[in-house]
Design brief:
Radius of gyration of chain A: 28 Å
Order of helices and strands of chain A: HHEHEHEEHEHHEHHHHHH
Shape of chain B: elongated
Oligomer: heterodimer
Number of strands of chain A: 6
Largest sheet of chain B: 6 strands, antiparallel
CATH architecture of the largest domain in chain A: Up-down Bundle
Structural class of chain A: alpha+beta
Mean pLDDT of chain A: 76
Distance between the termini of chain B: 18 Å
Distance between the termini of chain A: 34 Å
Strand content of chain A: 5-15%
CATH architecture of the largest domain in chain B: Up-down Bundle
Strand order of the largest sheet of chain A: 3-4-2-5
CATH class of the largest domain in chain A: Mainly Alpha
Helix content of chain A: 55-70%
Strand content of chain B: 15-25%
Mean pLDDT of chain B: 69
Largest interface: A-B, 96 and 97 residues
Structural class of chain B: alpha+beta
Number of helices of chain B: 16
Shape of chain A: elongated
Number of domains of chain B: 3
Helix content of chain B: 40-55%
Number of strands of chain B: 15
CATH superfamily of the largest domain in chain A: Multidrug efflux transporter AcrB transmembrane domain
Low-confidence stretches of chain A: 330-373
Number of domains of chain A: 2
CATH topology of the largest domain in chain B: Multidrug efflux transporter AcrB transmembrane fold
Chain lengths: 373, 603
C-alpha cells in the first residue's frame, strides 16, 4: 500500500515510468493481432444471436409439474441454445428457444414432451419473430454512428482533432475486441450484451478523456521550451495519470467481475454472464486502449506536425549540445522529470536529477525541484 | 466563504456546509416523496417481475386477401411497440409469433386495462363522413334525421362552437321523425386547415382508391349502396341507427366492434362514447394510414387552447381535401366527419372549408390529455391489419427471482470489493468516497422508484447490471478528484489549498468525461427505441447523478474534511499522509518555491 503510494508519487514525478509511447509499435502490433483474431473469430464463428434478434420457436405446454428451471435445462440441452422459460397463468410453460426453425422445432418437441412427461401433441410449437427487429438493430447502429460523429466533433473542439481521431480509433478497437471475444466464446448475444457494449462507449472514452485532459494541460506551452518532444510529454501524461487510470479501472471492474464470476459463474445465472462478459472485456479493453493505443496515437499524429518536428529537432540538438558539455555523454541527458513543473521549459535538462535510472529512454526529464521557469 | 483564509482563490469554495445541508434536504425530500407516493420499489421489467402476455391474431379482412403478410405484421409490431412503450422505458416487448400472431408482453404494474385497450382494440383508423346523427340516449323515438340542417355554424371561419352540445343546432331532418341533430361534433370540434385558409377544391374524389375515397357526398349521392333512401340516408341504415343502443359502455363497445368489421366501402353506425350521440357514417373517405404525423399542440394563436395537428401524405392530402370540400358545403351535422378507430368514433369534428395541402388541425374542447391521446391515436392508429385478442395470460418472470438475486448478491460482493479497495488505497478518504457512493446509490434507487409511476420506467436485468456498474463508474469521478488533490499534496501543499487547487482541474476533467458519457446516453435515447432507449435513460440518469453527487456532496464534504485536524495534519490513516504520498523533501521544499510559482497557472 505504502509502496503503491510511493509508486504513485514516483510515477507522478516521472521518476519511474514505462515508455508507452516509445514502445508503441509493439503495442500497436499487439492490438492489431488481437483485432485480427477478433475479426477472424467473427468471420469464422459468427455471433450466436439470441432469440430477440433472429427469432426462434416458442413451445407452449399445458399444466405441468416440471419447474421452469428444469424445463430450461431440458430445453437448452435439446436445442443447444439458450432458452427462456416462463410460467403461464394456466400453470403451463412457455419455452422460447432461439435459432430454431420448423424442422428443428419438430425435433425438439418430442424431447421436451418426454422430459416434461406429457404427450407431444399437446405441446404447441410456433415460430416467433425477433422482438428486436431489424429496425431496432438498425436504429442502434444509427445511434452508434451519430454518437461517434458527435463525440469526434466534441473532442475536436474540447481538445483537438488528432485526439478526437485517436479516441475514435481506440473506441472502435475496444468494440471490435469485445465483439470478437463474444464470437470466440460463443456466448449468446442478447439485448443485455448490446447494452453492455453500449456502456463501453461512454466508459472507454471516459478513461481516454482523463489521459487526454492531462496531456492537454501538460503540453500547453510545449512550443516554448526545448526540453521535451511531444512524445515525451505524452508519455509522461500517461505515466502521471497511470495511478488514476488503474484505480478507476479496478474500481469499475470489481463489480463487473463480481457479476461475471460470482453472479454468473457460481450462481449460474445465464443472462448476467452475457452482460457482464461484454462489460468486463470492454472495460478492460477500454483501459488498455486508452493507455497503450489512444495516447501513443496522438503522439504519432502530433509528431507529424511541422511545428512538432521542429521542436523535436531543437530538443535533440539541445541534448546533443548538453551531452557534449555534460557528464552524461552519449545520450540525451535524461533524467526523471516532474511533470508539472518541468514543462514550461527550464533549461535544466541535466540538472538536479537525483539518481535516476539510466538515461536511456530517449525522453528527457528534468528533476524539477519545483522550479518553474 | 467561511472557507480557508489561505485560499488564494476565494471564489472556488463556496460554503461547503450549506451546500451539504441543501443536498441532504433535497435527498430527504425526494425520499419522503417516494414514501408518500407509495412506490417504494422500482418497477421491474417483465424479465424480472413477469407480467401479462397478450396474443393478438391478425385477420384478413374480407375483400383484402393478402393483407396478413410479413411487411404488414412488422409495421403492426412497430406501431404497437410505440403505443405500449411510447417513452421507451417501460420494457414492454412486442414480437411476432407464427405468421399471423403478435405477442405483447407487458410488465406487471402497468395499467393492464389501458394497455390492453391500446394494444388490442385500436386497430384501424379511418375518416368517415357523417351521414346522420342523433342523440344516443333519448332512445329510439325522437330520432332526428340529420341532414339539411340550418345550423348556422357551418360556415364561419374555422372555429366552431364549443358549445355545440348546449345548443344543438336545430337542424331539421328530412326523413325520420324530426329530432334535433347534433349540430356540431360531440365535442364541438372543428377541423381547420393547418395552413392558412384554403381554396375550395371540391374536386370530385379523384383519388385512386375508389372504395375509400368515395365521399358520401351530398345526401343525394350518399353511400353507394343506398341509393334508395331519401335525402338523408338509406332506410336500412336509418333503421340501424335508430336501433343502435349506445346507452351503456358495453353496448357502445359492442356497437364499435360490429362497426369495426365493416368494409371500407360500407356505411356504418356507431356511437360516440363521450357525448352520447350516435351517427350513421358513410364509407371511409381517408384511411388512417394516410396520416403521416399527428401531434397535440397549443394553438399558436392562443384562441383554441389545445389542438391536434395532423399531416397527411400525398394521397391522403388529396382525399382529405376532397372530403372536406364536400363536407364544408353541407349543413350540420353533415359537415362533420368522424375519426373512427376500429369502429368506435374517437372524435367527430365539423368542417367549414375544404382543407387541401395535407395539413389540418382539430380544435375545440381539448385539454392536454385528450389532445395528446387523440394525437397518439392518429399517429399510431393506422395499423395495417385488424387484430383480434386471442389470449391474455399472466406470465412469470422469464429470468426469475434467482437471477435478480444472483445479480444483487454479486453486485453487493463487487461493491464490497470496491469499498475494501478504496479503504486500503485511500484510507480515511475512502469514508468520503463511500458516503458519496451510498448517496448516489440511494438517489438512483429513489429516482427509479419515482420514475416508475411517473413515466412508466421499468427496470430490467440489464438495467440492474448497468446500475451496479454505474456505481463503479461513479467512483471514477472521486478517484479523479482525489488523485488530483493528492498530486497537489505531493507538490508540498497542505490539504486545504490542495483541495482548493485540485478541484478546478478535477472538475474540468470530470465534466469533460461525464459529458462524453451523457452524450452517448442522449444520442442513444433520441435515436433508438425499445430496450436500448430504456438503458440509455438509465445511463444518462446515473451520469447526471454522478455530476450532482461530486459537485454537491463529495466536494463540499472534502472541503469540510480538509479543515479537520485528522485530514489536514496528514494522519497516516487520512489518505493524505505526506510521507505516504511520497512528498519528497518532506516539508521543507513544499511551501516556498512551489506554491507561489505554480499558482498563476491554474486560476
Amino acid at each position: 500500500m505504502s509502496r503503491l503510494g510511493e509508486l504513485g508519487a514516483k510515477l507522478y514525478r516521472g521518476e519511474v515510468g514505462y515508455d508507452f509511447v516509445g514502445k508503441r509499435t509493439f503495442w500497436y502490433g499487439v492490438s492489431i493481432l488481437i483485432t485480427i483474431a477478433a475479426i477472424v473469430g467473427l468471420g469464422v464463428r459468427g455471433l450466436n444471436m439470441g432469440i430477440e434478434f433472429q427469432g426462434g420457436a416458442v413451445f407452449t405446454t399445458p399444466k405441468t409439474s416440471v419447474s421452469a428451471g428444469q424445463a430450461e435445462k431440458v430445453a437448452e440441452e435439446a436445442a443447444g441454445h439458450d432458452a427462456i422459460v416462463q410460467e403461464l397463468g394456466t400453470g403451463g410453460l412457455r419455452i422460447q428457444i432461439s435459432n430454431v426453425d420448423t424442422t428443428k422445432a419438430d425435433q425438439i418437441r418430442p424431447m421436451l414432451a418426454k422430459e416434461l412427461n406429457v404427450d407431444p401433441k399437446v405441446i404447441n410449437a410456433e415460430l416467433v419473430g425477433p422482438s428486436w427487429g431489424e429496425q431496432i438493430a438498425n436504429k442502434a447502429w444509427t445511434g452508434l454512428a451519430v454518437f461517434m460523429i458527435l463525440v469526434v466533433i466534441y473532442l475536436a473542439i474540447a481538445f483537438e482533432w488528432r485526439m478526437a481521431l485517436a479516441a475514435l480509433i481506440a473506441l472502435i478497437h475496444d468494440l471490435t475486441i469485445t465483439v470478437g471475444v463474444y464470437a470466440l466464446v460463443g456466448f449468446e448475444v442478447t439485448p443485455g450484451t448490446v447494452i453492455g457494449l453500449l456502456t463501453i462507449l461512454g466508459y472507454s472514452l471516459y478513461d481516454t478523456v482523463v489521459v487526454f485532459d492531462s496531456l492537454k494541460e501538460q503540453s500547453k506551452d510545449l512550443a516554448k521550451q526545448t526540453q521535451f518532444t511531444y512524445s515525451e510529454v505524452a508519455n509522461r501524461s500517461i505515466n502521471s495519470t497511470l495511478v488514476r487510470s488503474i484505480n478507476t479501472t479496478v474500481v469499475a471492474l470489481l463489480p463487473v467481475a463480481g457479476l461475471l464470476f460470482i453472479g454468473g459463474g457460481v450462481l449460474g445465472a445465464g443472462m448476467l454472464n452475457d452482460i457482464s462478459l461484454s462489460l468486463f472485456v470492454g472495460l478492460a479493453a477500454g483501459a488498455y486502449s486508452s493507455i497503450f493505443i489512444a495516447t501513443p496515437l496522438v503522439a504519432d499524429f502530433k509528431e507529424r506536425e511541422p511545428q512538432m518536428k521542429a521542436l523535436k529537432k531543437r530538443v535533440l540538438a539541445k541534448r546533443a549540445q548538453a551531452a557534449r558539455d555534460e557528464r552524461v555523454p552519449g545520450e540525451q541527458g535524461d533524467d526523471e522529470g516532474d511533470p508539472q513543473d518541468v514543462l514550461p521549459g527550464e533549461a535544466q535538462a541535466a540538472v538536479v536529477g537525483p539518481r535516476t535510472q539510466p538515461p536511456s529512454r530517449g525522453r528527457g526529464r528534468g528533476r524539477p525541484s519545483g522550479k518553474r521557469r | 466563504m467561511a472557507a480557508p483564509k489561505k485560499g488564494r482563490k476565494p471564489s472556488a469554495q463556496g460554503r461547503p456546509g450549506r451546500t451539504l445541508v441543501l443536498t441532504l434536504i433535497a435527498m430527504v425530500a425526494l425520499t419522503g416523496g417516494m414514501f408518500l407516493s407509495g412506490h417504494t420499489t422500482p418497477r421491474l421489467g417483465i424479465d424480472l417481475a413477469g407480467g401479462t402476455s397478450i396474443t393478438l391474431k391478425a385477420k384478413n379482412e374480407p375483400g383484402q386477401k393478402n393483407a396478413v403478410n410479413k411487411t404488414n405484421m412488422e409495421t403492426a409490431v412497430g406501431i404497437i411497440e410505440r403505443r405500449v412503450n411510447g417513452l421507451g422505458v417501460s420494457e414492454a416487448e412486442v414480437q411476432t409469433q407464427g405468421n399471423d400472431n403478435i405477442i405483447v408482453n407487458i410488465p406487471k404494474g402497468t395499467d393492464e386495462e389501458s394497455a390492453r385497450e391500446q394494444v388490442g382494440t385500436t386497430a384501424k383508423l379511418a375518416f368517415r363522413p357523417v351521414l346522420a346523427g342523433m342523440p344516443a340516449v333519448a332512445g329510439g323515438e325522437a330520432t332526428p334525421k340529420p341532414s339539411p340542417s340550418t345550423s348556422g355554424e357551418k360556415a364561419e371561419g374555422d372555429k366552431k362552437d364549443k358549445g355545440a352540445k348546449a345548443e344543438p343546432s336545430g337542424s331539421t331532418s328530412a326523413d325520420p321523425p324530426g329530432s334535433p341533430s347534433p349540430s356540431a361534433t360531440t365535442q364541438g370540434r372543428a377541423v381547420t386547415s393547418g395552413l392558412a385558409a384554403q381554396d375550395e377544391t371540391p374536386a370530385p374524389s379523384g383519388s385512386t382508391n375508389p372504395g375509400s375515397s368515395a365521399p358520401s357526398g351530398s345526401p343525394s349521392a350518399v353511400a353507394p349502396e343506398a341509393p334508395a333512401a331519401a335525402p338523408g340516408i338509406p332506410a336500412d341504415l336509418q333503421k340501424k341507427l335508430e336501433a343502435l343502443d349506445c346507452s351503456t359502455a358495453p353496448a357502445r363497445a359492442d356497437a364499435g366492434s360490429k362497426a369495426g368489421v365493416a368494409k371500407n366501402g360500407e356505411s356504418i353506425v356507431s356511437c360516440d362514447p363521450e357525448s352520447q350521440f350516435k351517427y350513421a357514417l358513410g364509407p371511409v373517405a381517408v384511411e388512417g394510414k394516410r396520416i403521416k404525423e399527428a401531434s397535440a399542440a397549443i394553438d399558436p394563436r392562443g384562441v383554441e387552447g389545445w389542438i391536434v395537428q395532423m399531416t397527411f401524405d400525398g394521397k391522403g392530402a388529396d382525399q382529405f381535401g376532397d372530403i372536406t370540400g364536400q363536407l364544408a358545403a353541407k349543413p350540420a351535422p353533415e359537415n362533420q366527419f368522424a375519426i373512427v378507430l376500429d369502429g368506435e368514433i374517437v372524435s367527430a369534428p365539423s368542417v367549414s372549408t375544404a382543407i387541401s395541402g395535407g395539413n389540418a388541425q382539430i380544435s375545440g374542447g381539448f385539454n392536454q390529455k385528450s389532445a395528446e391521446a387523440l394525437g397518439n391515436m392518429l399517429s399510431y392508429g393506422a395499423l395495417p391489419l385488424t387484430f383480434e385478442e386471442q389470449s391474455v395470460t399472466t406470465v412469470t418472470a422469464a429470468l426469475g427471482g434467482e437471477q435478480l438475486e444472483a445479480g444483487l448478491i454479486a453486485g453487493a460482493i463487487g461493491l464490497a470489493l470496491v469499498v475494501i479497495y478504496l479503504v486500503v488505497y485511500y484510507r480515511g478518504l475512502a469514508l468520503i468516497a463511500i458516503a458519496s457512493l451510498l448517496l448516489s446509490a440511494a438517489l438512483t434507487y429513489v429516482l427509479m422508484s419515482l420514475l416508475g409511476p411517473a413515466i412508466g420506467f421499468a427496470l430490467n436485468l440489464p438495467a440492474v447490471c448497468g446500475a451496479i456498474v454505474a456505481i463503479g463508474i461513479t467512483a471514477d469521478s472521486f478517484i479523479v478528484f482525489f488523485e488530483r488533490v493528492r498530486d497537489e499534496v505531493r507538490e508540498g501543499r497542505t490539504l486545504r489549498p490542495a483541495v482548493q487547487r485540485g478541484w478546478p482541474r478535477a472538475r474540468r476533467t470530470i465534466l469533460v468525461s461525464d459529458f462524453v458519457s451523457f452524450l452517448a446516453a442522449a444520442v442513444l435515447f433520441v435515436v433508438t427505441v425499445g430496450k436500448v432507449q430504456g438503458f440509455a435513460f438509465t445511463l444518462g440518469l446515473t451520469t447526471l447523478l454522478d455530476v450532482f453527487v461530486v459537485f454537491f456532496f463529495t466536494k463540499p464534504l472534502l472541503t469540510l474534511a480538509a479543515r479537520s485536524k485528522f485530514f489536514s495534519d496528514g494522519h497516516p490513516w487520512s489518505g493524505f499522509d505526506p510521507k505516504r504520498l511520497g512528498v519528497k523533501p518532506p516539508v521543507r521544499r513544499s511551501r516556498r518555491p512551489v506554491a507561489p510559482l505554480t499558482d498563476p497557472k491554474e486560476a
